[in-house]
Amino acid sequence: MSNEVKLVILIKVESGKADEQIRLYEKIKPLVLSEEGCLQYEMSRVSGSDVEFVLIERWKSEEDLTFHDNTEYMKEADSMSPSFRVGAATVLKLNGI
To answer: Which CATH number fits domain 5-88: 3.30.70.100, 1.20.1440.230, 3.30.420.40, 3.90.1150.10?
Structure first.
């Protein structure tokens, strides 16, 4: 049984603030991808929407995800997000079938 952790994160930003979300993602993406346990970190815009994004994350283990969540750059990113997002992101943790 794999310990891999898969997340789909639904993000909605305020109208006119999509560029702020994109800039933040582009800033932290290389840092996240360099983390030992990161298997995937990919954000896409929802087709037909100027304010909705989906972030897909895959981690080797729960411990790797916990380490990621506690990095200084993720704490900083989390503190910046409320300035351009509409509420908290919706995090969906997936289980394989």
So the answer is: 3.30.70.100
Q: Report the pLDDT value the prediction gives residue 71, as an integer from 0 to 100.
A: 96
CA 5 – CA 75 distance, rounded (Å): 20
Three-state SS sequence of the chain: CCCCEEEEEEEEECCCCHHHHHHHHHHHHHHHHCCCCEEEEEEEECCCCCCEEEEEEEECCHHHHHHHHCCHHHHHHHHHHHHCECCCCEEEEECCC
pLDDT in tens, 48-63: 999 999 999 999 999 9
